[in-house]
Amino acid sequence: MKKALITGITGQDGSYLAELLLAKGYEVHGIIRRGSTFNTRRIDHIYHDPHNNGETVHLHLHYGDISVGETITDVIYNVRPDEIYNLAAQSHVRVSFDMPEYTGDTTGLGTIRLLESIRKSKIETRFYQASSSEMFGGAKPPQGLSTPFEPRSPYAAAKVYAYWVTRNYREGYQMFASNGILFNHESPRRGETFVTRKITRALAQIVAKKQQYLYLGNLDARRDWGYAPEYVEAMWKMLQLEQPGDFVIGTGEAHTVREFLTEAFGYLNLDWEAYVRIDPRYFRPTEVDYLLADAAESSQQLGWEPKVRFHELVRIMVDADLELAGLPCPGEGRSILQEKFGGWHRWESQVVSMER
């Protein structure tokens, strides 16, 4: 049985990746921060209490923090995983302007702490670094492996640092260390302050008459949006190759926030302009206008292509948030998942309902 260690296991990507690896027969270990409250709702459906006799436990959680190198080294040395997926970070771009030092510490230095822990532990493992399309920033689209980075936020700059130290350790210490430059990927498990989930959740609250307006910033920002469960499969595929490398993952099509609003509200026959208000506080000091993946080379290497497209993604998210609010939904999102996925993938309301 292979062992995998996931930092950021309680996040959107971490929870999907844990599901995928468990379905593939892995023993999965996750690092969570110790706190006075539990923040494990995205993985509660796959976690089994080890105190329950008779249950075989393949998901194990360890306390640790990527801002503290000693705790990371202890976990890596004791678990000795075959694969390590670094998904932990302060990942909200707008928040990184308000908390630049913390963002740099977790998103940037956290990566080198992990790489140093691997080196010092002298274990044979494969390392995945979650890089971001935000690293391209102001670069002209489409952006691919040959596109120079032009970061436009503390978050993006920290990710560029993490990208290069991953390459340095791969080349300097012959580590199997790969960067996955993932363009925006969304789902019903997306954090509620990220714009896509903010829209679909607010839409459900408006329909339920619990919210009157939705406040947003730049509606002209254009992004390459994909479906998160497919992107974690690409992460896994990167670590199954014979050689490590750097990869770009995206759909190859981009849409504005305004288009997302039109698609989401139009799905319920509503005019978004009646409900949306612009709040200058949500604009970034330096904006990123247009991110579009040039992923052809990476897709060919990995044998990976996205199944869920933009309008389908929106329907999946709207349906899930309507159900979360206790409202009837058109059901197209559920039908899309049933048609395109099987095996480990499940209808999202079974998970996001835990947020109530």
From TrEMBL:
NCBIfam families: gmd. Its EC number is 4.2.1.47. The lineage of its organism: Bacteria, Bacillati, Chloroflexota, Anaerolineae, Anaerolineales. Residues 5-317 form the NAD(P)-binding domain. This is GDP-mannose 4,6-dehydratase. InterPro entries: GDP_Man_deHydtase, NAD(P)-bd_dom, NAD(P)-bd_dom_sf. Keywords: Lyase, NADP. It is an enzyme of class 4 (lyase). Belongs to the NAD(P)-dependent epimerase/dehydratase family. GDP-mannose 4,6-dehydratase subfamily. One of its GO terms (biological process) is 'de novo' GDP-L-fucose biosynthetic process. The keyword NADP applies. The gene is gmd. Its cofactor is NADP(+). SUPFAM superfamilies: NAD(P)-binding Rossmann-fold domains (SSF51735). The keyword rRNA-binding does not apply. It catalyses: GDP-alpha-D-mannose = GDP-4-dehydro-alpha-D-rhamnose + H2O. It comes from Levilinea saccharolytica.
